[in-house]
Design a protein that fits this description.
four-stranded antiparallel sheet; 20 helices; hydrogen ion transport; V-type proton ATPase subunit a
Length: 734
């Protein structure tokens, strides 16, 4: 068994205070497996002792007791007993019994008894104390700084620091999403990471990743430019090669014409050009790529700007090309523009910039063209390998981040929550300690004190935390102690409304009524088995699934796995009553009680059936399925049964209101709420439920609709054939 050590540390008052003055007795339970060899903390210094004495008396007036009596009481309270183990989260596992047993009482009928407590924490151990109390999950703090804005609170700088680290984590998440890298499940390995070390590590990763991304963007842009240039050289080279070949043929024709005599049929311009070669005009050229959807407008604007004094040749590129500027793939056209004069050139350059056309140099010499094409192709291959190495390096950084991303994210969320909680505490005038107030279950007193003591020991504080219970007239919050089975049912109730403090909790009854009423509508034991197998799969693998990040729908199903289990069991039960297995009846509990008296009756109607055996022992007789009377019979059965169940549940709610009024000793609610509701409900629908049961027992063919309608329209008239029992008219009038 776990050994427990009880220490009572008495803080002695200064010498100038007499023996009747109040003193402080610090009592806590220290488990040896938490603190194997930690000595008792030394008594505080004289200044701190006076300081804590001032706060305990000023903020929380306590009854004055002599030091000897206080010490004796603390020693009596410190007698060895089995204490409750601290809980991480109440909803994850059941708490130990308050009496020391192995099973919790799970008192879901009423919420736990709460108490308003005050905790005075030294500043050096405040963070660790809040962390321990947060892990415990049994203390709800009040905001003592409600009149201050978030920027005026003591720990605003730490929250801003956490926000900056959260921004870096979001940046990492975006980069991992772009690289299609998934985060690993939360795995805590090695020593826990401190928030300061995490801040340094996040800064290093961000700087490295930013530098790698910048270099990769530059390399990728250069690579895209070279790829675009290479495609342009191939397309434009073919055009210039065909143009040079055509020019050479024309030159040969001109030489042949010069060797012969000129005739009247020779062109005059041709003769002038041959005679005066000095009039030849030198044309400039521009080559580039323009988006295909802008090609027609590009050509039209060029023609109008130069007044037709240019020559444009375009050709479509077969495959989409990654644009160096935007980084997106686009279908483009290669173009060659011939122009004359600097003025035309400046206009063409402005139009190219306006249309996002990328221009590249092009050598006129054929040999230089071939050399340029080979050089660009070599650079493309080299840059492609370099870009792949850079991307692999970036992916390596992101994978190392992904392994610890969830752990860092959880640590940062916890740290931010701690400082938000610390901002709810009030600082004393000397700013040496923090004062907190909050609500805690009565049974958690020893666990809260243990968490505070561990925070004092872990922070090496010379002064311990002071835990006090305050008397108040405020209405406490509602707290239900649940486990993994009951928590989902409690969530269903809380979605509609949370019960007031110490009111009857509908969640206790919902554990049965919710899945059973579902099964009344979903009564099929074949479908119920399918749901049962699904629920058992989620329950058997709950440890593995709890550590994974699930899809939204799967996460909802996993959270309600025990609700689904209960619904499946009740569905199997009601399905056996309805005698439906995927809407097919079976004679599971014996033969049918009816049979046809001749072959002509068949299954067309039940009027030809003759009773040949005893009543079917359980559920609906299978002979009803497939008969003409199946739908009226089953609908009548299920509708009337639903009325009975609904009225029973409504009566349950009214009866619970009586127990609330009795518990709170509110006699007015008993006579002016509970009694009228009970009378009104059961005089109408309760009476209808009684008529349904009598009709089932007697086999009468009375019309219940007629009875209920004329009960109000003609209460004194004779009932006639709709009478179900003697004195029915008198009962209805009454």
């Amino acid at each position: 068994s776990t050994l427990e050590q009880h220490r009572c540390l008495q803080w002695k008052a200064p010498a100038d205070i007499d023996s009747s003055s109040p003193c402080f007795v610090y009592s806590s339970i220290v488990r040896e497996d938490y603190l194997p060899s930690v000595p008792p903390p030394p008594p505080p210094s004289e200044a701190n002792r006076r300081h804590y004495h001032h706060h305990a008396t000023a903020l929380t007036p306590a009854p004055r007791r002599p030091c000897a009596a206080a010490a004796h009481r603390s020693i009596e309270q410190a007698r060895p007993r089995r204490s409750a183990l601290p809980l991480a989260r109440v909803s994850d596992r059941p708490a130990m019994s308050r009496d020391g047993g192995c099973c919790p009482p799970m008192d879901l009928l009423r919420s736990e008894a709460m108490q308003l407590v005050q905790v005075i924490i030294p500043a050096e151990s405040a963070r660790l104390a809040v962390s321990n109390l947060g892990d415990l999950g049994l203390l709800q703090f009040k905001d003592l700084n409600a009149d201050k804005s978030p920027f005026q609170r003591a720990y605003a700088a730490q929250i801003k620091r956490c926000g900056e680290m959260a921004r870096k984590l979001r940046f990492f998440k975006e980069q991992m999403s772009k690289a299609a890298i998934l985060t690993s499940p939360t795995q805590f390995s090695g020593a826990p990471l401190e928030i300061g070390d995490l801040e340094i590590k996040l800064g290093e990763f961000e700087a490295e990743l930013t530098e790698v991304n910048t270099n990769n963007r530059k390399l990728q842009r250069t690579y895209n430019e070279l790829v675009e240039y290479n495609v342009l050289l191939e397309k434009t080279g073919e055009f210039f090669y065909s143009a040079q070949r055509s020019a050479a043929e024309q030159q040969r024709e001109m030489v042949a014409d010069q060797s012969g005599d000129s005739s009247l049929e020779s062109p005059l311009l041709h003769q002038e050009m041959v005679i005066d070669p000095s009039k030849h005009v030198k044309l400039g050229s521009l080559i580039g790529l323009v988006p295909k959807q802008k090609a027609m407008a590009f050509e039209r604007i060029l023609y109008r700007a130069t007044r037709g004094n240019m020559l444009l040749r375009q050709e479509s590129v077969d495959e989409p090309i990654t644009d160096p500027q935007s980084g997106e793939k686009a279908v483009k056209n290669s173009f060659v523009i011939f122009y004359s004069g600097e003025r035309a050139k400046s206009k063409i350059l402005k139009i190219c910039d306006a249309f996002g056309a990328n221009r590249y140099p092009f050598p006129e010499d054929l040999a230089t063209q071939l050399h340029t094409i080979q050089e660009v192709s070599g650079k493309v291959s080299e840059l492609k390998a370099t870009v792949e190495i850079g991307l692999a390096h970036r992916d390596g950084i992101l994978e190392s981040i992904a392994c610890e991303y969830e752990q860092w994210n959880n640590l940062l969320k916890k740290e931010k929550a701690i400082y938000h909680t610390l901002n709810m505490f009030s600082l004393d005038v000397t700013k040496k300690c923090l004062v907190a107030e909050g609500w805690s279950p009565v049974f958690a007193t020893s666990q809260v004190q243990d968490a505070l003591h561990r925070a004092t020991s872990g922070s090496n504080s010379e002064v311990g935390c002071i835990f006090q219970i305050l008397n108040t007239q405020e209405s406490p919050p509602t707290y239900f102690q649940t486990n993994k089975f009951t928590s989902s049912f409690q969530d269903i109730v809380d979605a509609y409304g949370i019960a007031s403090y110490q009111e009857v909790n509908p969640g206790l009854f919902t554990i049965v009524t919710f899945p059973f009423l579902f099964a009344v509508m979903f009564g099929d034991w074949g479908h119920g088995i399918c749901i049962f197998l699904t629920a058992m799969y989620l329950i058997i693998r709950e440890k593995k699934l709890a550590s994974q990040k699930l899809d939204d729908i799967v996460e909802i199903m996993f959270a309600g796995r025990y609700v689904i289990l209960m619904m499946s069991l009740f569905s199997i039960y009601t399905g056996l009553i309805y005698n439906e297995f995927f809407s097919v009846p079976f004679e599971l509990f014996g033969k049918s009680a009816y049979a046809c008296h001749d072959p002509s009756c068949g299954d067309a109607t039940t009027e030809g059936l003759v009773r040949v055996g005893q009543t079917y022992p359980f559920g609906v007789d299978p002979v009803w399925h497939g008969s003409r009377s199946e739908l009226p019979f089953l609908n009548s059965l299920k509708m009337k049964m639903s009325i009975l169940l609904g009225i029973a549940q409504m009566n349950l709610g009214i009866v619970l209101s009586f127990f609330n009024a009795k518990y709170f000793k509110n006699i007015v609610n008993v006579w002016y709420q509970f009694v009228p509701q009970l009378i009104f409900l059961n005089s109408l629908f309760g009476y209808l439920s009684l008529l349904i049961i009598i009709k089932w027992c007697t086999g009468s063919k009375a019309d219940l609709y007629h009875i209920m309608i004329y009960m109000f329209l003609s209460p004194t008239d004779d009932i006639g054939e709709n009478q179900l029992f003697p004195g029915q008219r008198i009962v209805q009038v009454w």
